[in-house]
Structures are given as structure tokens and as C-alpha cells.
Amino acid sequence: MTCEEAEVLVHALIDGELDAGHAREVEAHIEGCAHCAALMKEYQEIRQAIAESDVRYKAPLELRRKIEKALPQPQTQAQAAPSRRSVLRGFAMGSAVSAMAATGLVAIVLRSDDEQRIENEVVSAHLRSLQAGHLIDVVSTDQHTVKPWFNGKLDVSPPVIDLTAQGFTLIGGRLDYVNAREIGAVVYKRRQHVINLFVAQTANTERKSAKISTLQGFNIRRWSDRGLNYWAVSDLGADELTEFGDKFESAMRANKEG
Amino acid sequence: MVVNASQDDPEKARRFREAALPYLDDAYTLARYLLRDAADAEDAVQECYLRAYKHFDSYRGPAMKPWLFAILRNVCRAEYARRKTAPTAVEELPEGGEQTPLWNEAPETPEKQLLRRFDGDTVRKLVAALAEPFRETFVLREIQNLSYREIADVAAVPVGTVMSRLARARAMLRSAWLAEQEQVK
Fold first, then answer.
1. What pLDDT score does A132 carry?
2. Which end of chain A, N or C, is surrounded by fewer C-beta atoms within 10 Å?
3. What is chain B's alpha carbon radius of gyration, rounded to the nearest angstrom?
4. Where are the CATH 1.10.10.10 domain residues in chain B?
5. B contact residues 8-67, partner A, Cβ 8 Å cutoff
6. DSSP assignment, residue A109?
7. ipTM tops 0.95
8. What is the rounded average pLDDT for all residues in chain B?
9. In the predicted model, is pLDDT for residue A165 greater than 60?
10. Mutation site for B-interface testing, chosen from A22, A45, A50 by largest number of B Cβ within 10 Å
11. Residue A10 and residue A109 share a domain
């Protein structure tokens, strides 16, 4: 085999696309040819470097919104609020933007198998947010700036609480997309760790106490209170994320009482 | 972007959402590399999803991603054609790009030298600077992880062409990588 041939075939070898016979021939050539061996090593290194660097783009929310809007919406029930049963069926069909989107009451009702899927989506949203320039749409450490920013952008604006005194700095807010709908994310930081707090409305007003889970190396603390579902996602340890959630919940209670 | 009434089928829309929307970031990434312009990429992806929805009835699988990409690629090619007639046409090939023999582009490097690692922005820039059709082949392989067969289907060329384009794309990228490395030294 000539170098010229090997320089083409080596790529198919790297990609695992060569049949066994050709693979052996290329390997034999490379063993005896320092030039081709060095090239192959470099190609592999470049390949590795690309796989490990952030070369992907995130679709803008606006694009997602335009595409969603152009698609026929799932069947709407009459103007009456949907029964819990129909909400569950909406989910069983995999559709989150259910009848309630039309009536203005958008809700997320979780069944256990949906819960896992949504946690996956929440972690993906967290990961996307960490890419350059995607973390925050409104940059502010002031809750009175972040909170009004959400107004009019979502059916329900998430509670924005300053926890700086408790060691979690509010850095801004963002619109994100989870479970086929827009959702508010309030962004906090502790040291160099980002915490995304995703907040979505739910038809279920029952309080659910916090559960910690781990997915792809991220911790998720999920709870529900007064008609809102919360997911706090971070690479912080479970103990610190628990602390964050506790501080947040007690600040919410204080707000209500005060 | 409006879908006409005969296609206003919520069940179809639901299946389409589930099948196609998870690839939105992938499609947008491909469009960014093909068109090298954020606004054009956004338009192209939107058009791609509209067309995909229209043809969703005839979709038989197996893989959604290459199917979407084939549509997206056609949309992007229409955009190239438009640009060619526009005053600010983007040059597709640097002069002689296709003719340069592969192995002349591979200067010797000291064997022990490791390639330098660059940040994401630099790598994006290097990939985006590759000439077409090598950039397309490269992005489909290295960023989208498609097989040669899938790339051949998306680009409507034989598998052998995919292999030779990829070889050239990697050789070009390697040269650009070494040049960048030289520059920042």
C-alpha cells in the first residue's frame, strides 16, 4: 500500500468503517511507515480534541417557539378546566402542551415515569445553559429586576428570591424549554457553581417535600409548593444543594408571612 | 410559517414533535456550520422543520436525524444558490482547494510534539473555515456522529466520496490547526 492510499484509508480506520481485510492492510502500512503513523496519531488527537470541546450550538428559544407555534396544537378541550384525568391522559400521550395551554392554565402533572423524563430534560437544559452565552437572559443580582422581567413572558412568573445573605448569589433569569413548553429558570451561584432553579406551574396545589436525585453527575432537588413545581439543578454536592433548597423554602415562607 | 388546515392533525403533530424536536439543537448546529450565519441558520432550520412536517407522512425511518439533515441540507443549498446571485456571495472553495494533492498538505512534524488543545471558540472557527463540501462531511462525521453510509445518504453522494472528502477535510483541518498553533506560540 502506498502512502497516498493509506492517507485516505486511515480515516476509515479511525472511524471504524473499514472491513477487516483493509484494516489489516492499513495497519501493516502504518507499522512500517513513521510518516503515516505520525499523521494518524495527529488525526486521532484532533478528533479527540473536537469531541471534548464545545463545538455545538444551542437552538435559540425563539426558533423553538416559532416551530412549536407553526405545528397544530394538541386537541383542546372546551373552555372548561380539564379534569385531572384528562391531564394525565395528555401526559400518557406524551404531550405536555395539553388542553390547558388553550385555557391559559398550563400545568405540569407528573406521573412517575414522566418524572424521570422531565428530570432528564431539566439536566439537559442545565447543561445547555452552561454553554457560552446561554446562561442568563436578564443579568441582575436584584430580585426586583429579575422578577418583573419574567412578567408577560410566562403564564406564571417564578418567585425570585435574593439569597445572597444565605450564601447563594442571584445572578439572573432565563427562559428555557422543558417538557415541550417554556419555563422560567432563576440562576444562582455559589462560588463557581451554577444553580439553575426551574419553576413550572402545576394544577396540583398539594405540597410535596423535597427529593434529591442524581443524574449524569448533577444533583437535582425537586419539590412542589402552592401550585408550583421546582427543580434545582447543580454540580454542587447534595448537601449544599439541600441547603439551597431549604433556604429558598424558608425564605418563601417568610415572604408569605411577612 | 403556517401549516394548512388539511395537515392540522394533532396526533400527527404530536408524533412529529416527539420524533423531530429532540434534534433541534443538532439541526441548528449543522445549519450554523453550513451557512456560517446565525440568522440564516435559524431561517433554514425553521424551513426544514416545516418541510419535514409536511413530508412526515412518508417518513419510514429508520433514523430521524439523517432524514432531517437531508432536508436541512437541501434548504441550505437553496440558500447558497440565493447568495451566489446576491452581491455578497460567499466563496465556497479557496483557489485550488480541490486540486491540491492530499499528501503535499502534510508537512512533517517532530514526532513527540503533541497537538495543542484549543478552546471551543477556536475549534469552531477552524471547522467553520473549512471549504465546502469538506466542511459538511466533516461536521456530519465529527460533530453529528453520522456513519459514512448516513453521510452518503444526506449528501447524496457515494460512500467512497464521503471517505475522500473526509480525508481531505481532516488534512485541511490539521494544517489549519498547526498554523493556528504556530500563531499563538
1. 61
2. C
3. 19
4. 102-184
5. 8-10, 12-14, 16-18, 21, 24-29, 32, 41-42, 45-46, 49-50, 53
6. -
7. no
8. 81
9. yes
10. A50
11. no
